[in-house]
Amino acid sequence: MFDRPGGGGFRRHGPRGVIVLLVIVLVVLPLYVDAFWLQMGLFVFAAGIGAIGLNLLTGTTGQLSLAHAFFLAVGAYGYAYFSGTNTQIGGGVEVGGLELPPLLAAVLAVALAGFAGLLFSPIAGRLRGIYLGVASLSLVFIGQHVLLNARSLTGGFYGRDTAPFSLFGFTFTNEDPPLTVLNVPFGQRERLWYLGLVLLILCYLFASNLLRGRPGRALQTIRDSEIAAATMGVNVRVYKAAAFVLSSMYAGLAGVLVALAFQRPVPDYFNLGLSITYLAMIVIGGLGSVRGAVVGAAFVTALPQVLTHYSDSLPFLAQPGESGVGPAEFANYAYGAAIILVILVAPGGLAGVFSGRSGRAAHARSTVTSPSPEPNSSVGDGLDRNDPTGTASSVTVNKEARHT
Amino acid sequence: MTYFGELLINGISLGFIYGLIALGFVVIYKATEVVNFAQGSVLLLGAYVVARTHASLGFTLAVVVGAAAGALGAFLIEFLLVRRPRHADPIALAILTIGVDIALATDLTRRIGQRVLSFDDPWGNSKVDLGPFTVPQARIAAMVVSVVLVALFFTAFKYTSWGVATRATAEDPEAAALMGISRGRVSMVSWIVAGALATVAGVFLGTSPSPGLNNTSNLTALNAFPAAVVGGLDSTEGAVVGGLLIGVVQSLAAGYNDQLSFLGSPLGDVAAYGVMLIVLLWRPSGLFGTREVTRV
Fold it and tell me: What secondary structure letter does DSSP report for A401?
């Protein structure tokens, strides 16, 4: 297990050249593409950041969370509140705001999301496996309830406008200062594109480094066996809480970007469906792989938008108003099927398929994502107790269930 | 007081409906350790079949056909997908059922569209007087049918060979396998039972006072999640008790929303999740769930 750091084995599988090339393409792309692609790119970057965060928690540490949408919402509305002004919006609703500089507001929003994660960690620390997954559902529903009711913070059902981002006097809007690069006017979308790209790269590098080092190995050991981790001197409770906080902060940053992209985030966006979408991203991309999270985020985010954009020329899709399968539904079928396929045939996800790791390592992954050390090999034959990874072999573990 | 009583009766009836769905979660969890996130869309599938066939078959026969469809759907999910990866861990399989749910729910909600499908059930919108309380007849029917089904379920779980096999498998999969119990069969029957129970629950979720089956009925079924977890995911009694608790809390929270307006509205759905969080803080495996004891 330890020969395969979760960061994705940069050096051995080495498509570093590919990644550098991809970044160069992404840097020059705004000079050529139209608003649709810019907007979509921004959502992909935001989703990539959020997915890296969820993957740290669910993929690497093995804590199933369906609460990601809630932490995104905390980031988005945290930013809107910290940077916003007291204004009257439609329907006689008055929203408050602290009028902080946007950079400070964004930092505080991310910190707030992390704090929300910290508040939940006493519950998370007590629950294991699937109980945590179901408990985290409650955060999404409670979050939706709060977003709809705390009108002075969130604007209620129709949301509130967010202040544009600015960095040391350079605003991410269409002017102020007007900017033209190679005869292409750089408006709000182009500027936000670069902001999103830079943030995604920073988040990517941070997560990769984290996973390659001591904390990453500690988190993986917790996933494989909490008892083994504790025996080796990993403070399980602290590490689990830290993973929760870090993952929430990633979600918060994604939320800030989403708020900037939407300009007016509505509470309905941050529903259970969004959480499930994020789960789909990391499963399709590959649990535990930072690169996989970004690839999965791009796939899941772009697919419905691209299908919608080109639905005129795709004969198998129904137009709005017609009966039949529309682009959004087709995208749902596709990623529902993708989740099933990945779990059935390629547990390493897209990241595993591309780096040819869907064999041994991926098989190991599919059996050890559970924090429970008990190998579930007793399906059918009931006798095969081989732990294919040998992770739990250093400690003899005997789990026993008793009726209370 | 009359108001309170009516809310209570409605809540208990709703609780039994949740109990049926939660029993499905529990029996699948006991047999396979998988939490079936696709239960909501299986429910929608069964109820949709009922809504489509009741005109030609009549209500009772349509429910039977619908339950068979729900059971078949659950069976296919189990047989084609969940059983395949022999070494996959339960959480991966739970995520797999989320994938199933996305695809199946998308298809059914697309078919239902914006329509509200009625079942033409024999109870309609008529109300019945129980002493001082007036409650929809359909709610009473839901309660009676659920009690009968729950009783049948417990009898089967206690006395039939499937029930014994399921309990043995849940207790110790290896010993059960050594005794000649086929885990595949146990798992298959459990999924079928869960699918049929969910369909019946789905029909009652669409009868009065609810206007009918619509494209969000599968989300209502999500409320059975807190029910199953509050009771303990591996406790059949817990599923019923959890269902009742969640049903009553939900009914009261919705009914007294005006008095509780400082908590915001609508309170009904969120109350269920609030109760679940509180119970989990107190008992991490639910009220009647088996506590995991780890020994090194």
Answer: E
State the smallest CA–CA distance between residue B65 and chain A in angstroms. Answer: 26
Taking all residues of chain B, what is their mean pLDDT, rounded to a whole number? 85
Reading the block at residue A253, the tokens are 């940053």
Contact A378 B91 (CB under 8 A): no
Residue A285 near residue A350 (C-beta atoms within 8 A): yes
Nearest-10 Cα torsion for B183, B39, A282, B86? 10
Answer yes or no: do A126 and B276 touch at CB < 8 A.
Answer: no
What is the pLDDT at residue B87? Answer: 63
pLDDT single digits (tens) A82-112: 887 777 776 667 777 777 788 888 899 899 9
d(CA A9, CA A288) in angstroms, rounded, equals 12
pLDDT of residue A150: 78
Are the beta carbons of A50 and A68 closer than 8 angstroms? yes
Least confident of A95-104, A117-126, A301-310: A95-104
Picking from A145, A370, A402, the nearest residue to B91 by CB comes out as A370
Give the distance from residue A170's alpha carbon to the nearest chain B alpha carbon, in angstroms: 40
Residues B209, A144, A86, A160: what is their CA dihedral angle, to the nearest 10 degrees? -90
In this complex, the residue of B96, B102, B267 whose CB is nearest that of residue A335 is B102
pLDDT at A177: 67
pTM for the predicted model, two decimal places: 0.82
Return the bridge partners of A87, or none: A95
Determine the Cα–Cα distance for residues A237 and A61; give it in Å rounded to an integer.
Answer: 12
pLDDT given for residue B42 in this prediction = 92
Chain A interface disruption, residue of B91, B181, B287, most A CBs within 10 A: B91
> In this complex, which of A323, A379, A400 lies closest to B86 when CB atoms are compared?
A379
R_g of chain B, CA atoms, integer Å: 19
DSSP A42-88: HHHHHHHHHHHHHIIIIIIS------HHHHHHHHHHHHHHHH---EE
- pLDDT tens per residue across span A191-205: 788 888 889 989 888
Backbone angles phi, psi at B213, to 5 degrees: -80, 125
Residue A263 — pLDDT band, cuts 50, 70, 90? confident
CA dist A294 and A140 (Å) reads 23
DSSP for A340-357, written as a single string? HHHHHH-TTHHHHHHTT-
For range A307-336, the mean pLDDT: 76
Contact assessment for residue B27 and residue B194, using Cβ atoms and an 8 Å cutoff: yes
Backbone angles phi, psi at A371, to 5 degrees: -70, -15
Higher-pLDDT residue of A71, A33: A71
Dump strand ranges (E) for chain B: 127-130, 133-136, 291-295
Interface contact B85, partner A, CB < 8 A: yes
- Residues paired with B130 in a beta bridge: B133
The secondary structure of residue A264, as a DSSP letter, is: S
Cβ atoms of A95 and A89 within 8 Å: the answer is yes
Which chain B residues are within 8 Å of A400, Cβ to Cβ?
A: 293-295
Long-range contacts of A299-302 (CB under 8 A, 24+ apart): A299/A335, A299/A338, A299/A350, A300/A47, A300/A335, A301/A40, A301/A43, A301/A44, A301/A47, A302/A40, A302/A44
Asked if residue A35 lies in contact with residue A49, where contact means CB atoms within 8 angstroms, the answer is no
Sequence-distant (6+) residues with CB within 8 A of B160 are none
**pLDDT, position B73:** 92
Say if residues B39 and B224 touch (Cβ distance below 8 Å): yes
Q: Which of residues 187-206 of A touch B (CB under 8 A)?
A: none
| Dist CA A68 CA A242 (whole Å) | 15
